[in-house]
Design brief:
Layout (H helix, E strand, L loop, with lengths): L20 H12 L11 E6 L3 E8 L4 H14 L3 E11 L2 H16 L3 E5 L3 H9 L7 E2 L31
Parallel strand pairs: 2-3, 3-4, 4-5
Antiparallel strand pairs: 1-2
Helix pairs in contact: 2-3
């Protein structure tokens, strides 16, 4: 028995008379307004000390991540040593917000640097813990929070993670 699936055509792939398919995308974006309409300010990065300290604020989501990523990469490329990223006013709205932090961390490692997250809001810290990214990313000041199993100054990547899974029988 053969199953036949009817091909669907989408409005965004059909060219309009006198226009290109990407014109529809641009028209929808302009009609929608700014990405931060009603959801709080869009994510932004302010470089406080050239290549050393940045402040990330606003909503980190799919709309703001390209600008935040470019600013973080520029700061990483410009300096040496640790890049301290203050996240005091940041809200991680979706997975792309976490992805930009992980991507900046990996770029810092390739450059022989370290991305250190500071002033991390509790909701963002909870998200890092749920996703286990607190074991990968360096979070300054995490040692005083409940459930933190590392002392001050210890590298977070070097500690063995306790597992709740039973050991495999030999």
């Amino acid at each position: 028995m053969a199953i036949q699936v009817a091909a669907r055509t989408s409005r965004s792939t059909r060219p309009r008379p006198g226009g290109r398919p990407d014109d529809d995308v641009a028209a929808r974006r302009s009609a929608r307004g700014p990405a931060d309409a009603g959801d709080g300010p869009s994510g932004r990065v302010v470089e406080e000390a050239f290549g050393q300290v940045v402040r990330i604020a606003g909503r980190l989501d799919v709309h703001s991540v390209p600008d935040v990523r470019a600013a973080l990469h520029a700061a990483l490329d410009a300096g040496t040593g640790d890049l301290l990223a203050h996240l005091e006013g940041a809200v991680v709205a979706d997975a792309t917000g976490l992805g930009v932090l992980v991507g900046a961390h990996r770029r810092a490692q390739r450059l022989g640097r370290r991305l250190v997250l500071d002033d991390v809001p509790l909701p963002v810290l909870r998200l890092l813990r749920v996703t286990k990214l607190h074991r990968v990313l360096v979070v300054a000041g995490e040692e005083h929070l409940p459930g933190a199993d590392r002392g001050p100054g210890e590298a977070q990547n070097s500690l063995p993670a306790p597992s709740s899974m039973p050991r495999k029988a030999s």
